[in-house]
Every structure is written in C-alpha cells, then in structure tokens.
Amino acid sequence: MAQLVKLLDYVSRYENDLTRYPTQYIRLKNSQWRRMKTQWEHGADLSDWRQIPEEPEERTEEGKWYSPLFRIFGNRKEQTDEIESIETDEKDQEEIDVFDFNPNIIYHPENEEQLRKLYLDQLFHFQLKWASSTMMEKSNLDAGFMRDSLLRSFTQQLPDSYLLFYYPILKVKKAPVELDILLITPIECLCITVLEGENAAAFIGDGDRFWTKKFGDQESKILNPLIGLNRMEKIVSGILAAKGIDFPVKKLVISRNGYIDYPGMPFDTEIIDRKTYTEWFTSLRNSTAPMKFNQFKAAQSILDMGQTTAVSRLFEEQVDQGQPDNNE
C-alpha cells in the first residue's frame, strides 16, 4: 500500500518523523497481516479483532502525559516539555505491539482473497486516520475520501515504498496553493493531474486556455489541465532545487475511464488514458525498488512546505464536555 503522507491541509502523523514512520508502518502492516492470516487459517474466531481501542492515554505518577504511541510517532515542536521527555528508544517490536491496529471484522471471510480485501479495506480507513490526526491534534476529515476510488486504488495497490501527497496544500510565498497529486517513488516524483468524467468521455486539447470534453452528443469546455500541472511541476522543482536535492520530476495527465487527444502535448508531459492506464498502473505496482534517501529528502522538503489546519484534541474534549459560562 502506498503511504498517504499528506491529504489536503490535514495534520499528518508523518509530519512527526518522516524518516522513521514509513518503516514502522510497513512492519506494522506485515506483522498484523501475518497474525490475522494465521488465526484465520487455524479457524480462530476473528471477532476478537472487533475491538479498535482508542489511542491509550494515561498519566504517570509524576503527573506527566504518557502514551505508548509517542514511541512510534515522536514529538511535534509545539508539544510541552513533559511530552518531549518521553523516552523514544523502545524496541521496534514493542512499538508495533502497542500500536493497536485492530481491523473491525464485519463478516467471516471464506477464502484468503476475501480476507486480504477485508484487511486492506480496514487498513485504508486507518491510513485516513493517520493522515488526518496525531496524538495531540485532529483535522476534520471529509467523509468523501472514504469513497474516493482513485485514492483507494493508489493506497491499496501500489507498493509500500511509494509516498503519496493527495491534493496537498502548500504555503508558497506565504500563500496557500493547492496542488494535484504527487506520487514520490524511490526514483522520481510524479506530478499527476487527473481528468475524470463520464465513462468513455473524450478530452480534446484544442487551445491554450480551454480544452473540449465530448461525451456522446454533448460538448463542454474544461480548463486546460496543463496549466495547473505546469504550475505544480514548477513549484515542486523549485522546492527541490532550493534544498539542493537532485531528484527527477515528471509530469503526467491521466484518465482512468476516458480518452485524451492532444497532438500538441509537450515532450516532457506523458498522457495516460483509458487505452494505456492499466499497463501504466501495473508497471507502478510491479516496482520492487526499496525506499531511498533522496526520496525521503524530496518528500520531507515538500512536507515542510505543507499547510496544516487542525484543532487540539484537548480543546475538542473540553468543548465536548461543555465548559461553564464565565459570565454566569
């Protein structure tokens, strides 16, 4: 599963420690899958997996805030001195054990294929949680992402070594700029603009400002997707250059269910439409390249530019519990 590093302007657990968390995630994913598969093969009652515990929080004897999850995610700069004092040198296996990723088993799978699908669906939900919350903060997740088939296919079917930025909002010269999709593989950064419409719709590049979308007898104008794509590539390349990171940046216009016709497409931009999407996606899936240092550097430089909108979990709890009116 590609790792969802940044979603819009949501707070992300990857912001805590990008170099550490991806490997933690991979070990967690694989260890829990092996555990679940072994239990299923031995006829165990998987209803025991129903419990999805909240992130445990308690106070130590000294009154300091404590949570075992901090051993995985590290600390944010704004956290208190008490949080920063928490030890982070526990063994990796202990870190995995305390993470408590427990899929919610809603039916008993009859074969391994159903079991895997059930597991990946649950893991997708947890990825959305990790991409919209930390121990101390939480962003308001749009429920529509649960039904986003493109996001689901990217996260569930691409290799663990891929880092995904899904419509991230970056701060560029102090102004928020929403990009399209960034997929950072071990060898390159893919800037992706998606054209989605009715099944078998045709997108025709016939102008600098607008393209034509045709579906049956209907025609409509859409904004030239190269405008946003070129801006995205320029921003990403500028960020990498400013950090002295030598990492290839590639531009793609993709359509899973439509056709793209643009004879004048620039040489540095690739078109992936209904005719070639399956082949292209399969080539991404089949990659066996491990994560690389430059990949982390590139992803971190972009993540550092991200805008984050979130509220404190403590503040939310106070609001939920209801505070007395000071005017009373």
Explain what you see.
The chain has 328 residues and is an alpha/beta fold. It is 34% helix and 19% strand. It has helices at residues 21-41, 70-73, 81-84, 92-99, 112-130, 149-157, 225-242, 277-285, 293-303, 313-321; strands spanning 3-7, 58-59, 65-66, 137-138, 163-166, 169-172, 175-178, 181-184, 189-194, 202-204, 210-215, 218-223, 249-254, 259-261, 269-272, 311-312. A 6-stranded mixed β-sheet has the order 1-5-8-9-13-15, with helices on both faces. A 4-stranded mixed β-sheet has the order 12-11-10-14, with no helix packed on it. Strands 2-3 form a two-stranded antiparallel ribbon. Strand 8 (181-184) and strand 9 (189-194) form a beta hairpin. The chain is globular. Mean pLDDT is 81; it is low at 50-99.
Question: What is the distance, rounded to the nearest whole angstrom, between the alpha carbons of the first and last residues?
Answer: 53 Å
Total number of β-strand segments? 16
In which range does the helix fraction lie? 25-40%
Derived from helix and strand composition plus strand pairing, the structural class reads: alpha/beta
Q: How many DSSP helices?
A: 10
Order of helices and strands: EHEEHHHHEHEEEEEEEEHEEEHHEH
**Major sheet attributes:** 6 strands, mixed
Shape summary: globular
Provide the residue-averaged pLDDT: 81
Radius of gyration from the alpha-carbon trace, in angstroms: 22 Å
Strands ordered across the widest β-sheet: 1-5-8-9-13-15
